Description:
- By secondary structure, the chain is α/β, with parallel strands linked by helices.
- It has helices spanning 34-38, 41-48, 83-95, 114-121, 181-196, 250-261, 279-283, 308-321, 340-344, 346-356, 386-390, 431-435, 441-453, 456-460; strands spanning 15-18, 52-55, 59-60, 72-76, 99-104, 133-134, 155-158, 163-166, 201-204, 269-272, 295-296, 329-331, 362-366, 462-465, 473-480, 483-490, 496-499, 503-508, 517-518, 521-524, 529-534.
- The strands form 5 sheets. Strands 11-10-9-5-2-1-13-12 form an 8-stranded parallel sheet, covered by helices on one side.
- Residues 65, 68, 105, 169, 205-206, 273, 335-336 line the site of 1-deoxynojirimycin.
Amino acid sequence: MPDLNGHEWWREAVFYQIYPLSYADSNGDGFGDLEGIMSKLDYLSDTLGVDAVWISPFYRSPMRDWGYDVSDHTDVDPVFGDLADAERLIDQAHARGLRVMLDYIPNHTSDLHPWFLDSRSSRDSAHRDWYVWRDPAPGGGPPNNWISVFSGPAWTLDAETGQYYRHTYLTTQPDLNWRNPEVIEAMTEVARFWLERGVDGFRVDAAHQMIKDPRERDNPPAPPDYERPWKEMGEYDDFIHLYDYGHPAVHEIYRGLRKVVDTYPQSPVTVGEVHIFDLPEWATYYGEHLDEMHMPFNFHLMATQWDSLRLRGTIEAVLWHVPAGGWTNWTLGNHDEIRLASRLGMANARLAAMLLLTLRGTPFLYYGDELGMRDVHIPHALKRDPWGEAVAHLNRDGARTPMQWAPGDHAGFTTGTPWLPVSQSHPEDNVDIELDEPGSMLNLYRRLLSFRRGSSALRLGSYLSHPSSTNQVLVFRREADRETVTVALNLSDEAVEVPLRSGKVAISTLDAGRSELVQELLELAPREGVIVTHT
Length: 535
Ligand code: NOJ
């Protein structure tokens, strides 16, 4: 069983991301809230069986970027409840053995944060240097050619004081100046505030972007054949992000944060949102002496084509690059990406569930993926995401729609009008209905989670390549002291036979009743995945 009291509890945990605006609404205003999450803790700990939740931001915010624009880091936005609710949520989760990780958003604040209001009030204000202010370029215009992730220049002119401020994201998300020790101290206090309330760690937002080239050189334009490691990002893709991305000075900040975090008895974890796809560079976020992030988020699987050989290549390359003594994680969805079932289709989403929960490393699940929730088409008039305003195909609303609890009105999410439309598939794809169907996606996740809980090979064991892998089937073995399991995923549309040591089928992604003994050959139906145990 997982040792969630241990020093490195997060190695054995399965995390589940909650997007709080869309999880459960307790007061009928159409927005999810903390009381709503509290009402679902039994679902999380018992029905589903995850070990930890990552809750996206619920701090005070004008909601230009739906909470990723914080105007008070140590208070709860009224839409979610109040600070006492947050404290109760942490305690109630802990009472069920669930760990709680929060978002920590150091790169920027809201433009309505008192720090920024003071900063922009005059060139000599006490907080002026807490943000990045620059004079216009010699001929006028922004100081350099940097583009914001959400498109448009990364600099906005403040007419009153005649200088530009930098913003990696929206104009309403000014960048903090992490070269100022007062900023470091103030944001460290924010971390302490939540750690003292018992939180079990932080997912660090935009972790690779907080420090940029001190000379602020122009980024070179990207040639037309420039190979992007990640999805298309609109205007942001016009440049190679040499100078505004992944600057090495960021490592010192993480060493500092780690020192603070390590003094807390709950052994908090730090997971950095690091969108870096060069593996050696990505691995530097662990720190030279494993003294930075416990885990940089691993988005490599998400960036890999759904193809047996490519997936195997990514998995093995990631495992190879994790520094000795380090530990990785795996994810296939979050609030910024198209949902798993929409990207890959339902049959592959079932295989993906098995893959995520059997790899060596900590799995991160995204709320609703356990039901097979798909992206919802949002009519123009109901769009909420500012990124979608700038670049239509990057709208993230579709993956942020209300959790589907029940077949009735608004899927049991709210008694009011939901802030984003509920999926039309909710009468079939919801917790209540799926619990009653042995073959549902939810019951597949439950079986996989329960199996993983009881299997030290899956939680902590080694990963071994398997000679039966082909371009159709991905096969690997996991081994701990007295336990060996084989995972075989048929990614093709044909039935295949996989040569295998004898064993017993423990779980199939397609047939909830499958449990036969395997003698040398394992038969897999098209798009079927199977876990085999060996004695
Ligand atoms: C990454 C977050 O995941 C995303 O939702 C947000 O818009 C940006 N960082 C800015 O905070």
